Amino acid sequence: MPGGRHVHAVTDAAFDLAAGECLALVGESGCGKSVLASALLGLLPGNAQTAGSARLGDTELLTASERELAGAIRGRRIGLVPQSPAAHLTPVRSVRAQLEEAVRELTGTARRDLRAAAERAAARAAFPLDHLDRFPHQLSGGLAQRAATALALVGDAPLLLADEPTTGLDRDLVDRTVDELRRQAGAGHALLMITHDLAAAERIADRVAVMYAGRIVELADAPGFFGAPGPRHPYARGLLDALPGRAFVPIPGMPPELGDLPSGCAFAARCGRAAAACETVPAPHDGVACHHPVTAKKEADDARTA
Ligand SMILES: Nc1ncnc2c1ncn2[C@@H]1O[C@H](COP(=O)(O)OP(=O)(O)OP(=O)(O)O)[C@@H](O)[C@H]1O
Ligand code: NI
């Protein structure tokens, strides 16, 4: 940070992800989701520090050299659907040219087959073929998103990292886009989808990781999380309760600034269950980092006394 300030953007993030599996990483704006993605790709700014381990097969991503990351990892072993596609597309080249180049670089397709391969890649991401000759600035946000998704799928990478892949898309296209990403996971890829969109997460995720103020506060199987017994962390519960299709009750208050975190549980100030124990940071235990997680039994008791 400018002025020598230190921000702990991501702490205690622990999860694994197998081929064929989709993990959704959800949480409010600014909680550290993209920082986590950037760390995996070696794209953090030069003054950022990381600790711990992030393994992709035999490769330690956090200490891999830029040469290895650029030459063998990004695009080839990790496909990225970036959060701001417009910023990742090359402004002076048509979508077709960018797709053909990616196909040539990442798949070694012969020159005469590039055109067809690029069109197949576009179609996979529902990018309309009659827009392929457009330049990025001639695309709507939704089309730029689909162009970026098409590019991310070209390398057939074993891990797909999609950072808000549905921003700017209407519901139909959200469903089509996430279904295509899910299909990739079904075909033996692992998918880490970062999203604000809990409906999209519910639609395709096998597991959900909830992030709050730089920490993963809950990691759960999606069916139990979205259905019964529901989330165990009060924040995760609040996120679901805030949905229009559910209780539609927002979580009171605002998340803390990552540069100004309280010394205890970062959610305590907004938590209806906060108590003295919350003055210390809860360690993750059994998939949830909370001193008094909601349990199915507690829920049932509450319901009886309500
Ligand atoms: N280059 C940087 N220098 C200093 N701090 C940074 C930098 N990039 C990110 N941060 C800090 O990390 C925090 C998390 O940012 P991040 O982009 O990961 O959030 P996010 O969860 O992806 O949010 P969104 O949903 O809005 O994309 C920011 O609030 C900011 O405090
Ligand atoms: Ni982000």
UniProtKB/TrEMBL annotation:
It is a peripheral membrane protein. CDD domains: ABC_NikE_OppD_transporters. Coiled coil: none annotated. Keywords: ATP-binding, Cell membrane, Ion transport, Membrane, Nickel, Nickel transport, Nucleotide-binding, Translocase, Transport. InterPro entries: AAA+_ATPase, ABC_Ni/Peptide_Import, ABC_transporter-like_ATP-bd, Oligopep_ABC_C, P-loop_NTPase. It catalyses: Ni(2+)(out) + ATP + H2O = Ni(2+)(in) + ADP + phosphate + H(+). Residues 1-238 form the ABC transporter domain. It is found in: Cell membrane. Its main location: membrane. GO terms for molecular function: ATP binding. It comes from the Bacteria. Its EC number is 7.2.2.11. The complex is composed of two ATP-binding proteins (NikD and NikE), two transmembrane proteins (NikB and NikC) and a solute-binding protein (NikA). NCBIfam families: oligo_HPY. Belongs to the ABC transporter superfamily. This is Nickel import system ATP-binding protein NikD. It comes from Streptomyces sirii. The lineage of its organism: Bacteria, Bacillati, Actinomycetota, Actinomycetes, Kitasatosporales.
